Amino acid sequence: MKKAYIKSISYYLPDKVVTNEELVADFPEWTVEKIADKVGVKERHVAVDSETATDLAVKAAEKLFAENLEITKDSIDFIVFCTQSPDYLLPTSACLIQERLGLRTDIGAFDFNLGCSGYVYGLSIAKGLIAGGIATNVLLLTGETYNKHLHPRDKGNRTIFGDAATGTIVSTEGFAEIGEFALGTDGRGAENLIIKTGGSRNPEKAGDLSFDDNGNPRSSDYLFMNGSEIFMFTQKNVPIVVKQTLAKNNLTLDDLDLVVFHQANSYMLNFLRKKIKVPQEKFFVNMEMIGNTVSNSIPIALYDSQKQGLLHGSVLICGFGVGYSWGGTILKI
């Protein structure tokens, strides 16, 4: 069976930046320090109204090709795009990206809908395409504009989420061999992170906006996240998937040189690190200036850790979130 490798990674952040100072102006009950302490984010990039996840993904891909001249557009034979912010219900955004990048037409292209576990799932798909001899160079893209899903008065989620896109080349050679996967799904948690309208089940806007006693909005037309339930889900399942990932790759926690989790929020990450007993010097966190970028967070962290000289040896990556969905793998560098 052919091995699959990460050959290159890049990412793109929209130009608009929303700082904690700006959020405090909207929500005076917050303080700059409280947001930074509670969430671990000082600022986040936000797509403007005319900017879509597809636009961001195209820019991430163009940056990828510009930074790695040995990777040509003609060498790409498959596009896989992870997004929960597609341009249209149909066609698939990956087809739009193929045309905008000027890639060959004799290639495969599709979207898949996943959130914070999406990059790990995307690597598993790309590895399968390589192993099956279906593709040689897969362009794995992630792109999210979650801020478009948030109500303007949603002070909790507006402090957390940032918009971004990333591009990764998965190939038959590269700097990081992709190991074995541990994946999980539990649809019983679907209601705890959801936008209820806009799909075929509830196509029309509900117009059911209400506010709780703390002034937080609740509406079927915007993203709803039950923070306490999401936290319970992660503290139960993430240690399990880490253990399964290590076992499938014949490793122990001590064998790891770096651990990169989905960058959810600083409190959750610190809790999980302590529960799993990962030494702080082996645990990479980089969300302070970009926020929780959903499916983009792991590849952005991999890119940044590589630039800092921290990406070497055996690296465990783990994503978890909406679905519920979770997954982990090992990168051997």
What does this structure look like?
- There is one protein chain.
- By secondary structure, this protein is an alpha+beta fold.
- The protein has 2 domains: 5-174, Thiolase/Chalcone synthase (Peroxisomal Thiolase, Chain A, domain 1, 3-Layer(aba) Sandwich); 180-332, Peroxisomal Thiolase, Chain A, domain 1, CATH 3.40.47.
- 31% of the residues lie in helices and 23% in strands.
- The strands form 4 sheets. It has a 9-stranded mixed sheet with strand order 5-4-6-7-1-8-15-14-13, with helices on both faces. It has a two-stranded antiparallel ribbon with strand order 2-3.
- Helix 3 (53-67) crosses helix 4 (93-101) and helix 7 (227-248) crosses helix 8.
- The chain starts with a strand and ends with a strand.
- The relative contact order is 0.19.
